[in-house]
Fold this sequence. Notes:
- The structure holds 3 protein chains of 3 kinds.
- By secondary structure, chain B is α+β, with helices and mostly antiparallel strands.
- Chain B has one domain (about 1-175).
- Helices cover about 25% and strands about 15% of the residues of chain B.
- In chain B, strand 3 (about 55-60) and strand 4 (about 65-70) form a beta hairpin.
- Chain C is mainly alpha-helical.
- Chain C has a single domain (about 15-415), classed as Up-down Bundle (Formate dehydrogenase/DMSO reductase fold), CATH 1.20.1630.
- The longest helix of chain C has about 30 residues, at about 255-285.
- Chain C is globular.
- At the A-C interface, helix 1, helix 5, helix 6 and strand 7 of A face helix 2 and helix 6 of C.
Amino acid sequence: MSDDPRPTRRVALKVLGASLGAGAFARALAPLQQIEKYTSPAEFLQKHYRELSRDELHAVLRRLEGETKNRYGREVTIRDIRPTEGVQFAYALNLSVCIGCRRCVEACHVENNHDRASHQSYIRVLEMEQGSLDMERGRTDYDHAVPAPGHFYMPVQCQQCQNPPCTKVCPVEATWQEADGIVVVDYNWCIGCRYCEAACPYHARRFNWRAPEIPADEINPQQSYLSNRIRPQGVVEKCTFCLHRTREGRLPACLEACPTGARVFGNVADPDSEIRWVLEHKRIFVLKEELGTMPRFFYFFDV
Amino acid sequence: MRRALIFVMFALASLGCDGPARYADPTRTFADAGARDGETFPVTLHVPRSTTAIEGTVLDPHGEPVEVRCVTCHAVLQPPPALPVSAQSIGGPHAGLRFEHGDNACASCHNPAHFDRLRLATGESIAMTDAFRLCGQCHGPQRRDWEHGAHGGMNGHWDLHRGPRVRNHCIDCHDPHAPRFPRFMPMPPPRDVAHGAPHGAPHGASHE
Amino acid sequence: MGDRNGAAGHRLTYPGFLLRVLDRATDGTWRFYTWMFVLTAIALVGMNAWAQQVARGMALTGMSDHVSWGLYIANFTFAVGLAAGGVMMVIPAYLFHDRDMHDVVIVGELLAIAAIVMALGFVVVDLGRPDRAWHLVPGIGKFHWPISMLTWDVVVLNGYFALNLHVVGYLIYTRYLGRRPDPRWYLPFVFVSIVWAFSIHTVTAFLYAGLGGRPFWNNALLAPRFLASAFVTGPAFIVLTLQLVQRFTRFRVPAGAIDLLVSILRIASLVNLFMLAAELFTDFYTGGHHAAAARYLWFGLHGHRELVPWIWSALALNVGAAVVFLTPALRAHRAVLNGALVATFAGVWIEKGMGLIIPGFIPSTLHELVPYTPTLAEWKVTAGVWALGLMVFTVALKVALQAMTGEMRAPDAPPLDEAEEAPSHEGSSHAEVR
């Protein structure tokens, strides 16, 4: 600087440049002002679900109901439903009778308040070639009368693994396995890195690429914090075996929608349960057993 | 008895709008729920409406065909010496009946002495609503699976301590005369799959 | 000299030093201002695109639930490699006491800093909820360490950033004061940073290699291959930088440094190609499902060939560059050598960027084939992060070299000769004083 004959002018020019730069910077980041649409100071500071006290959780639920009312124009009830002791959920699906009608896909879409625009659902149905369990030969985009000759159908949703690869990778513990075996996501804690989506071997996780769009009259108002409440933008979600239903003893929406009765659900810890009978009497298998994920979702064929 | 009836009503109510056209009165408690203790809610069985009637050719003021009960004709008509053995040989109101159920003849299931009842292979006469017993004569594995909740759809509760369940009857899904499950169009395919087209076409429209 | 300053002394001199750094960092020729203006403009365009992405959702990107990571994570991986590659100057300089390399080692450390800034930048722009980044802060948030490999990556990247920032900052500060750096204050950190450099790229490889559901990544060769390619891109970038430094600054770059880096490149590029061959053999000789992603990448699958031209270009660039590095007659021409350096940099960028990340998702875990093409918004954001990294690198390099040449000195610093003549073992430079 000592060799600069006009130091003051130079400094003045630098200050001018810095101000212009700062102005341009503020301008470039202006779209961030819109984020108040989906976040608030209370949301920003909210603690992890498992660290909320009863009162705090209560306040959070009321706040979320209010937000839903403001953004979606619908009165909803958001509850916190905990696992029942002695209950271990399991699901089985009979590939001999599934006809690939996607009624379960649709029921999931409606029950879980999925984004209407992308027609999101936690279930994908693979149309498989008879005589092969090779998923590479399957396809999900079939659009013809079902069941098509020479094919069978394999719906895939979250397998609620007992050794879930997805919860392991989460850097902030926003997803974990509950006592009844359901893997859940705290949608208000997830940072949206999508590492779990990369880790899941079953394509069970979905990311909210945008804030979900649902007309007010189509919203399912019976909601729970860890399952079907309307998810925020930019977070990961997944199938929870409809825990807002199943933790109250009801059957999952996908099962009730199944016109062929291909789906069997229940408490595998109960020796008299239907699911237990299937596991004990049918030749069952799990998807990608070699990965050691130990799914709670089983497939079987009659015969 | 009174309590069971209340449970049945409850089951009906919980069904709500789940397809009133397809299901009618669940009239009876599921036979195999007996193993459960008295404190559990019952499992009830759906029975479709028209088990003892057929649709006639006359339309009611709403344009719906008027149902004609079996006994309306068969009580007064002289029973034939033998029931027809194939769909082709049926005439009258039953002409054109689609019959695709193995080598069965009418009398394999229908009771020629009581046209609103069925007849088991043993000769025992049973009500139409007990058809599962008849079906189970040949379809043993299906009946076994059904009894264990592994065949046939259901609604309601997996936990009978917390609520009732309604089970589908065989004939809810299978037309006894053509029992193969019909082929029909599935719900639309997922929109993000793009074997060719870029993903998310529906949401592509509203941004950028 | 010694302890002329106590802690109190530093409290007085350090703010002056920072002011001086700010002054030097914002001072330059028209060439410097133009370069910085262009980078600032690109960075601002990128920031604007990112702000829109945050506000309107990541649907603005080309990613989907099938290909849930894309251009950002591809560049993240590459940037981590670049950061680790700088260590290929540190090892000869400090472990083998290579005099020439020692003079320019700071360039490698600065590259590490800038590349880490980029790597962290690419992670941030990939987050769906950057407002919740505080959930990652240990103590305040919920840091899932040591189970999640991503938390390891956060630790090693920030650790590497801090280590290099300390070493470089200390060296520049002592140069500024005209004192000899005290080895106790930086040598241990240098040695830690050597091990650490390997760790950042190993951990980043484990991030992918640990996913059993993605056969393309679930591969023990991934980490070694990451390192091999990092030792290609790091030195390639540095050799190019050193030539620019020679041309545009008063800093004199010893010829021996460039020769040594080219020797390293020769080995690293061959090792990288060998590992590629090993991978290709395993995939294609065995065949079957595990090769589906490799088939998609190299030959296309079910009519989808999005990456095929890219990966073959990458192979051609890398092989061509290796031939130049291995042929004395060719690499003797500076222009040819520089062409090869640019080629292999681009080749590795394709190969371990998009060429590594995208086939991890195609075909998907349910063997669906949903292609991915980055959107304009993604390219803008990516260019913005690169511009930010280059800005950091330019400014840091400028300040560091001015400290090394003695252009930036404390008012009361002793004459340069004194420091220069001291029988220093570490941290001295052959700066040419004008």
